[in-house]
Design a protein that fits this description.
The chain is an alpha+beta fold. The protein has 3 domains: 85 residues, no CATH class; 54 residues, no CATH class; 145 residues, no CATH class. It has 5 helices and 15 strands. The strands form 4 sheets. Strands 7, 8, 9, 12 and 13 form a 5-stranded antiparallel sheet that branches. β8 and β9 form a beta hairpin. The two termini are 40 Å apart.
Length: 380
């Protein structure tokens, strides 16, 4: 008996499982058919952005109306708000290390309307190239006695166009111009007359009578001194003091007075000037379009999915009797109906087994009196 009960319970359990599987699956399939989804992708810096207002509460497609059921969001990608771009910049060189403090790099620069921020800098050293530059200077000379004795070179200060440093250099004479001519009466030279008591004075190979005016021999004196008469004139020779004895010979001192020709000259000196290499200092910098003092933001691409459930515009249900409702329910739920019938049969079977088992126990215990025994007792 117990084995039969177990077998019946197993059959009933299988029927219940089949019923529940069918009952749970069908509504899901129906719901899937009656739903539509819409998707949108948004960009935002807030991963927790509120997406409630992105979709409308009602969606109409053809003659069907759908109501918003739920909204789901999913981050599909993320990237920095700004893609970092760096540019190297080397500042203008300075030529004294002490000038670096006055040549600090700018904290920000603007290129193509984009602001870049200084993120690193270091001092680098170098040297300029040795090169030549053209130089030219003009020097004015006054009271020049002989033009051909002008200085062959003239000094000038050359400013380096790159470093700004100044160098004193010598340049060769290129040309000159006489700007003025003058005779100055400041020409003198001493004359010593030996053998004053002689009848003649000897000026080289020239014999000058003792009684002659020495001034008349001015050109001879210039020739003896190898001075050009175009540049010098002797106007007078004047005796100085009295004759005196020197080394057993009578001597007379004299002084020649005259004029010398001078010119004012403008001389031009020009030529190539050698500029030596110079050490340089400058900043090598790196700038970024991202401000290092601000936290870098991320941009999230979020896919938002809205699920809409179709609204059924069904007509009003007609009024059915209790019997019609039961038949319709059995028709619409065949598996559930079978389960209910099986359960009912099971209950009946169990009741029968319980009743039969109870009678057998009573019979065994002598408590059960058959109909024949009751008749016998009545006859007695």
């Amino acid at each position: 008996m117990k084995s039969k009960l177990k077998y019946l319970a197993a059959v009933l359990s299988a029927a219940i499982a089949i019923s529940l599987w069918g009952y749970g699956g069908l509504p899901a399939a129906a719901e899937e058919i009656n739903t539509v989804t819409q998707k949108k992708t948004i960009e935002t810096t807030d991963p927790e952005v509120d997406v409630a207002g992105i979709f409308t509460e009602e969606y109409i497609e053809g003659d069907k109306t759908y109501h918003l059921k739920e909204i789901e969001k999913q981050i599909i990608s993320s990237e920095p708000e700004l893609e970092e771009e760096t540019i190297p910049i080397v500042t203008e060189p300075v030529y004294e290390e002490t000038e670096l403090e006055n040549a600090l790099p700018e904290e920000t620069i603007v290129q193509n309307e984009i602001t870049y921020y200084l993120i690193s800098s270091e001092v680098i050293t170098g040297t300029t190239e040795e090169r030549t530059e053209y130089g030219k200077t003009t020097i004015a000379y006054q009271d020049v006695e002989y033009v051909d004795e002008l200085p062959a070179t003239g000094k000038m200060t050359v400013t380096d166009s790159v470093t700004g440093k100044e160098y004193v250099k010598s340049l060769p004479l290129s040309e000159y111009t006489v700007t003025a001519e003058n005779w100055k009466d400041d020409f003198t030279f001493p004359v010593t007359i030996y053998s004053v008591d002689a009848d003649y004075y000897m000026l080289g190979d020239l014999a000058i009578p003792k009684s002659a005016d020495l001034s008349q021999y001015g050109s001879d004196f210039l020739s003896y001194l190898r001075l050009d008469s175009d540049y010098y004139k002797v106007n007078a020779i004047t005796l100085q003091g009295e004759p005196f004895e020197q080394d057993g010979e009578w001597v007379q001192k004299a002084t020649a007075y005259g004029s010398r020709r001078t010119v004012d000259v403008t001389a031009i000196y020009e030529g190539n000037v050698s500029i030596p290499p110079e050490k340089t200092w400058q900043y090598q910098c790196v700038y970024s379009n991202i401000d290092p003092n601000e936290e870098s933001k991320m941009v999230y691409n979020i896919q938002v999915t809205a699920t809409y459930l179709q609204v059924d515009n069904e007509p009003e249900e007609p009024t059915y009797s209790l019997w019609e409702k039961l038949l319709n329910w059995i028709k619409d739920h065949p598996i559930e109906s079978i389960v209910c019938i099986l359960l009912f049969i099971l209950v009946i079977v169990l009741l029968l087994f319980w009743v039969v088992g109870k009678k057998r126990r009573e019979l065994k215990d002598g408590k059960y009196i058959t109909q024949k025994e009751r008749s016998r007792e009545c006859h007695k």
